[in-house]
Specification:
5-stranded mixed sheet, alpha+beta, 5 helices, 37% helix
């Protein structure tokens, strides 16, 4: 069940751009970062602070879950672990690259930890390994990563 704050934020966003819920052709997805409460909440906070402007996800997870790969222009309502809306982001760029080819620049844009590629590789290897295990696959340097850049378009 979607938290009421998600609908409230969506209505507020539509109103701010001169649209209304009944006639708009815009739509959104709502989701939280990562697979645990601490990281989900910390990463949402980094977005609100303007530090985190990108996210990386495992290509195979989209395939496994039957979800579409993000595309430029997608709108997402970022929620915290409890489902409470934090902000709305708009996808500005999507690249799909092997894990081993993620760049220092992308890691810095993602804004986590010390923003280094070494930090990015360490924490994402752990996360992607858990995801790969869930779908019965073995992580590798060649696993495809969806590197998505975004901008905040609305917050409380």
């Amino acid at each position: 069940m979607e938290h009421e704050s998600v609908q409230q934020m969506w209505r507020g966003y539509l109103e701010s751009i001169g649209e209304n819920q009944e006639t708009t052709n815009l739509n959104y997805s709502s989701w939280h970062f990562c697979d645990n409460e601490q990281d989900a909440n910390e990463l949402a906070e980094l977005v609100l602070q303007g530090t985190k402007k990108a996210t990386a996800s495992l290509y195979l997870s989209y395939e496994n879950d039957g979800d579409e790969i993000p595309t430029v222009g997608n709108l997402s309502i970022i929620i915290n672990w409890d489902g409470v809306a934090q902000c709305i982001i708009k996808t500005t760029n999507v690249d799909i690259v092997p894990y081993k080819d993620v760049t220092e620049k992308f890691a810095a844009t993602e804004g986590e930890g010390d923003k280094s590629l070494n930090y990015w590789r360490r924490c994402h290897w752990d996360y992607f390994s858990r995801e790969m295990q869930e779908i019965g696959k073995t992580p590798s340097e060649d696993m495809l990563v969806v590197c998505e850049k975004f901008e905040v378009v609305y917050k409380k």
